[in-house]
Amino acid sequence: MIAPTRQHGAPVAGPPATARIAPQSALIAAGRATSEALTREALDRLAVAGPRLRALSHSNADTALTDARRADAIARRLGQAALDDMPLLGLPMTVKEGLKCAGAPWTMGSSVFRGRIATEDGTAVARLRAAGAVIVGQGSMAEMALWTETTNRLTGRACHPLDPSRSPGGSSGGDAALVAAGAVSAALGADGGGSVRIPAAWCGLYAHKPSMGLVPLTGHFPMDRGPKAEGAALARYFAPGPMCRAAGDLWPILKAIMGPDGVQPGIESPLAGPTPDPALIDGTDIWVLSAPTLRLGSAVEAAQRWAVSRAAEILQRRGARLRMAPVRLLERGFELWMARLMTAEERPVDLSRLLGGGTRVPLLREAGRQILGRGRHSFPAFVLAALSRADPRPAGHWHKLAHAADRLEAEVTDMLGPGGLLLCPPVTGPAPRHGKTLMRPFDIALSAIFNALGLPATVAPVAPGQDGLPRAVQIVAPRRADHLSISAALCLAQDA
């Protein structure tokens, strides 16, 4: 976790939101704090951090204060009993702009949808509200959630709170920047290839991508137009997930949003087993992969390798048994993730049509606009749309790779067994300078592969490198053993 600072001349948000969710909710329920006061403080910090970091898409000032007063009324009426059904009672949070939030802009960071207002909450947002959370704003995002750098034609390019010349990541980068800057304690993003884990790793936060089939994506691309729309089948590889300043806040948020909603197919029942506990790490087999080789992508830099090894040492002291994972385990990560996406539907999804809101983007015309600096779309989104149209490879190529993904899933599942963990890097290095992600498009492989495999993955900060930028570890657990990777994050947090 990083604190607001002026390192590198970066902007600050104001007093950091450092308190844990559960204690804050308990204070509200006990009448020792009010949601209205906490919400006003969060809104004040957002008013400073949002514009300076270009990380805030919209502030929900009016509705948030109404919701906060409602939470205070519930606290006065029910006291501590309110926490039984509303464990997030009165807590200010932001959510990724792509997660439908009633009454707020819902543009997916795209000028195609400029001015569109959500008429209802998406499933995850509705569940946060039902658990008592106060949604104070929407963080900016990469256009249509299609890149690891948060930039779009509506809000511009989001900045890292430690160094404004760097990116906080994407696609949920606006929320990550706001949490890291101390504007709020937690936020909800959505992860289809690392979109909560990559920003968390670069911003020094805790984050969790849930197991496949655990949390519905309803209300966010590609489950924004219903289960039968083009591209909807991709949703099985996406999931909403929390980004937090405190490891202990991951589970309360995850617990609030899990389970079927009757809209997205394939969502399973909520987890009913053990809850996260650092004691669970004692005796756990942990496979360590600090320097994975990648067929496509950059080499993992030394400070990032050290962070994984350091995390392994900490967990070993807590009783874990360390084992070495094969260095080539994830080497085809990017290709296998792409194969899963390309074979999710009968025909490969046409990104140019999705980017154009159902109408194909006129690529030649848009190319001319991009050259003149007047593109309708962000450059990364345009490039991806063009590549999806120009891909010469036959469907058989992707199906062959999808079978390879099946084999890797079986291999990793067998390696972990019912209760093992894998430690590996979530990224190849620290937060990059703006625009540099275009030179390293394949580096998402270390995070994206676990979307393809459907395994839960938690990111935890370990320590900054010599450059002062955060370095993190990714903790991967067996399917539906989300509590175990979060338990490891709790151990690391205790040692921080």
TrEMBL record:
Entry keyword annotation includes Iron: no
Top-rank lineage group of the source organism: Bacteria
GO cellular component: endomembrane system
Keywords: Hydrolase
Alphabetized InterPro entries for the sequence: Amidase_CS, Amidase_dom, AS_sf, FAAH2
Pfam families: Amidase (PF01425)
An MF annotation (GO) of this entry: hydrolase activity
Amidase domain boundaries: 38-483
Name listed for the protein in its UniProt record: Fatty acid amide hydrolase 2
